[in-house]
Amino acid sequence: MNASTGPATGPTTQTGAHAVVADATDPARRPDVLFRVRGEAGRAPNPWWMIGAFLVVSGAVIALMSFIPGGA
């Protein structure tokens, strides 16, 4: 067998993976996924959202702990 008629091997071998990736749907855009939405490439949320969320959750935990009897 010469190289042109033999089985294709090596890094240039074409597999079905390229076709699968090309036809794949974005799981972040499925209708059953509510909050996971993929934005544009290179876009990140503002860090102040994370800081604000931390402060709100911390405040809620402290407020709820005040209802626990036996505290100081």
Query: Which stretches are low in confidence, meaning pLDDT under 50 for 5 or more residues running?
Result: none
Q: What is the rounded distance between the termini?
A: 86 Å
E-strand count? 0
- State the secondary-structure class: mainly alpha
How is the biggest beta sheet arranged?
none
**What share of the residues lie within helices?**
25-40%
Question: Using only CA atoms, what is the Rg?
Answer: 26 Å
Q: How large is the share of residues in beta strands? A: under 5%
Shape: elongated
Number of helical stretches of at least 4 residues:
2
Mean pLDDT: 74
Order of SSEs: HH
How would you describe this protein?
The termini are far apart. It is elongated, with a radius of gyration of 26 Å. It has 72 residues and is mainly α. The longest helix is centred in the last third of the chain and has 19 residues, at 47-65. 36% of the residues lie in helices and 0% in strands. The mean pLDDT is 74.
Layout of helices and strands:
Layout: H1 17-23, H2 47-65
What is the compact description of this entry?
The chain is an all-alpha fold and 72 residues long. Helix content is 36%, strand content 0%.
Keywords for this entry:
72 residues, mainly alpha
